[in-house]
Amino acid sequence: MNVTFFGVRGSTPCSCDRNARYGGNTSSVVVEAAGSPPILLDLGTGVRFYGESLPPTRPLHAVALVTHLHWDHVQGLPFFSPVLRPGSSLQVYAPDPGCGLTLEEAFAQSMRPPYFPVPLSDLRGDIRFHAVDSGHFSVGEVEVTVAVVPHNGPTLGFRLDWRGRSIAFIPDHQQPLDGGRDIAPAVVELAQGVDLLIHDAQYTQDEFRQKRDWGHSTVEYAVEVGLAAKAGMLALFHHDPTHDDGTIDRLTADARAARGCRPLEVLAAHEGLTVALADQPVASSA
Ligand SMILES: [Zn+2]
Ligand SMILES: [Zn+2]
């Protein structure tokens, strides 16, 4: 199972020289696993570059697991070239948006004049929407687990299990408002024992004090989640758009200091990074 980061930023795209090493595109991670169609984790602006990496004429059949409908998690959809072509298909799983709208209506409302010139219905690929909130389903050989995660508005986290390996994707996660370290049981369950936890790490401690109810976590809280869940590796993700490369380097060092000598590998996700997880067949009892 290969996990490739195409967008690692939160809130808004912010490409510039100061953050060129980590990248400026918003939330987009692609999981490629034998026996499963490609799984797109979020549809932020980074997904455009995944589309460009594919053969330009071949139809794509893929599944998108979208944590929520904030701009930074969906704005790449109309720029994802495979869904502009007939013959491609995309199954989109995301939370029920509420507000009296179906999931398809919510996507359609974000893609219509005067906000965007091309309506969702004009995309020539076959795009289907599925509202989910908790539970399990299969995408080929990948078992997907869904749970609700604290954030602003309906938001999900996803866990993917494949041939003995696992990842959890929790890009937007509200740390307790008092700065405490309590963790929602559903979040710990989602990330329990995963090989790779991709987690919100937007704020420094100072920034959290100023923006405590904006829906995000400090790097130290991301480490707490990784340790509580006994994850193998933590990828700091959803970097703040104001954080340049040097700031993310420092935050990564802060996260490693917070971990101390406890067993959790910590890295900061950057565009172009691929984490490869080889399958671990479960020994047969037969
Ligand atoms: Zn976000
Ligand atoms: Zn959000």
Notes on the structure:
With 286 residues, the protein is an alpha/beta fold. The chain has one domain (2-276): Ribonuclease Z/Hydroxyacylglutathione hydrolase-like (Metallo-beta-lactamase, Chain A), CATH 3.60.15. It is built from seven helices and 14 strands. The chain has helices at residues 47-52, 71-74, 103-110, 185-191, 205-210, 219-228, 245-259; strands at 2-7, 28-32, 39-41, 61-65, 89-94, 126-131, 135-139, 142-148, 156-162, 165-170, 196-200, 233-237, 265-268, 274-276. Helix 2 links the parallel strand 4 (61-65) and strand 5. Helix 6 packs across helix 7 (245-259). The longest helix has 15 residues, at 245-259.
Fourth-level CATH superfamily:
Ribonuclease Z/Hydroxyacylglutathione hydrolase-like
Q: What CATH architecture do you see?
A: 4-Layer Sandwich
Number of DSSP-assigned strands = 14
The CATH topology turns out to be Metallo-beta-lactamase, Chain A
CATH class: Alpha Beta
| Model regions low in confidence, pLDDT < 50 over at least 5 residues | none
Integer average pLDDT? 96
Name the hetero compounds present: zinc ion
Strand content: 25-35%
